[in-house]
Design a protein that fits this description.
two-stranded parallel ribbon, 2 helices, alpha+beta
Length: 56
Amino acid sequence: MKIAVIGGTGLIGAQVVRMVSADGHDAPPLSPPTGVDLRTGAGLPEACPVPTWWST
């Protein structure tokens, strides 16, 4: 399962990424250092692309 972690490079978020990854999940950290700005949405589509099977 892919679990996006907001603030995944911070103190607590990095631990969440580590624990979720250790359980075998894909846990991309979403934060400004990884190119994602959640205030503007910049970088979000690249970090969490919509699956092709998802209908809008």
